Amino acid sequence: MVRQTIKEKTGGTIKAKLYPANALGDYTVVQERVALGAVDMACQTPSSAADKRFQLPYFPYMFKNFAQAEKNYRVGAPFVKSLKLFIRNRASSSWRPGRYISAESP
Prior knowledge:
Layout: H1 2-10, H2 27-36, H3 66-73, H4 78-93
């Protein structure tokens, strides 16, 4: 389904080959390969091996309750804005530009 959507949206100019279930290695290996250009793109949780701050959204007990978590993870919340800024800065420094795709990318 993903491959078909990519084909339709790009008029067939972009072809996708999917590798499910860690076929290319675990997420740390795949992230490294994306950074090196050996893998074009990955849709996964960023590895904290690249930067420990990637663990921040998964830190246990960050919020006291669900209401507080919901408030801080909503679109436009200061916590979310800080994370986006960190990821953008990270993408423009050591990551290969153009390899990171966000929901706001055109």
